[in-house]
Design a protein that fits this description.
This protein is mainly alpha-helical and 103 residues long. Helices cover 26% and strands 0% of the residues.
């Protein structure tokens, strides 16, 4: 991991080299070193319970609450649009809806 000291990193590499020898893999078998958090999906597929940082479960909107803007809900009354003919015209409200409809 990112907090491993140089001795731990060397020991991990030595373990990987020993594993390659024990499994009789070719001497030119590559050892891949990945940074913490940079693991590929191909690597992660071998770990059933692997969870990434900030990973969500399921579908839907996913966000961190500390980063979402606070939105004030303001009540809206559509009938107020009819009080101003200019506003009604701007929003294509051709009449006030008080008449009768015949089909």
């Amino acid at each position: 991991g990112k907090d491993a000291n140089p001795q731990e990193r060397k020991a991990a590499m030595k373990n990987a080299e020993q594993f390659i020898q024990q499994m009789n893999y070719p001497a030119n078998t590559q050892i891949q070193v990945l940074p913490e958090g940079g693991e590929t999906p191909i690597f992660k597929q071998f770990f059933k319970d692997w969870k990434d940082k900030d990973q969500s479960d399921g579908f839907g909107k996913v966000y961190v609450t500390e980063r979402v803007a606070k939105i004030e809900q303001i009540e809206f009354d559509a009938t107020k649009l009819h009080e101003s003919p200019q506003m009604a015209a701007q929003h294509n409200m051709v009449d006030d809806g008080s008449g009768k409809v015949e089909v």
